[in-house]
Amino acid sequence: MYKDTAIRSTLPADENRLAASLAHEIKNPLDAILSLLYLVKLDGSLSDKGREYLTMAEQEVHRIAQITRDALSDFRDIQGSRETNVPELLGSVIEFYRPRLVSRGILVETRYGASGNVPVCSGPLRQVFSNLLLNAADSMLPGGRLQARTSNAREQTGAHRDGLRVTIADNGCGIAENNIREIFDPFFTTKGSGGSGLGLALVKEVVQKHGGRLRVRSSTRPGHSGSVFSIFLPAA
User: Fold this and answer.
1) What residue ranges in 76-208 does DSSP mark as E strands?
2) Residue 89 clears pLDDT 60, i.e. is over it
3) Strands (E), the chain
4) Average pLDDT value for the chain
5) Are residues 68 and 93 in the same domain?
6) Helix H segments across 104-235?
């Protein structure tokens, strides 16, 4: 049976600590990669093509650093939101990761509503979609199925606002019942050394800063396992 948990849209008291922790978590490996790339560049045995690839790698690392700075800036200033076609934004993220998902034998199914313009900060929301897609992929074996949908919706509780609902579902291993209320806590992870525990915490923070609602349903029952993350984004 699916365990259903709703995350209310009140801002966490430790949002500044979370943002600082994210910056720290990302900055350290980026600095290490840049240092290693610099040392490799000093190697006189590299071919011209190798140096070309190395330069491209450096440029991509610098681009990641800039994206991180921009995203963190947007986290702090939700007033920078603009009318954005969210289905197109979600679609661009899926297309970016599609080769990786396909290479792992994961079937990706999408269904986008006819319209979906709502005021959002596209940088942080793009990161939300990336985190949810990659978490879903990590939970599945080859042959798994990932579904992404957007639809016009009305808030089910509270102010009953009009808006947009984004749903990302998988048929992976699911989330254990004793973990489901902790998965959005900073630094909580079930991935061991392979995870920082910041991804879903940031998903929660971004949704809350948009005045939205986040809901997760999950099951670990053999043959019926999987997780469904649903995000409601208000139109106003």
Assistant:
1) 82-85, 107-111, 117-120, 145-154, 162-170
2) yes
3) 3-7, 82-85, 107-111, 117-120, 145-154, 162-170, 213-219, 226-234
4) 80
5) no
6) 122-138, 199-209
Asked whether residue 153 falls in the same domain as residue 185, the answer is: yes
Whether 146 maps to a domain, the answer reads: yes
What is the CB neighbour count within 10 angstroms for residue 77? 11
CA dihedral 134, 139, 144, 148 (to 10 degrees): -40
Residues 48 and 118 in one domain: no
pTM: predicted TM-score of the whole model, two decimal places: 0.69
Higher pLDDT, 40 or 20: 40
Phi (first) and psi of residue 109, to 5 degrees: -120, 135
Range of the domain at 174: 3-9+81-234
pLDDT, tens digit, 9 for 90 and up, residues 210-226: 999 999 999 999 989 99
Is 113 found in the same domain as 98? yes
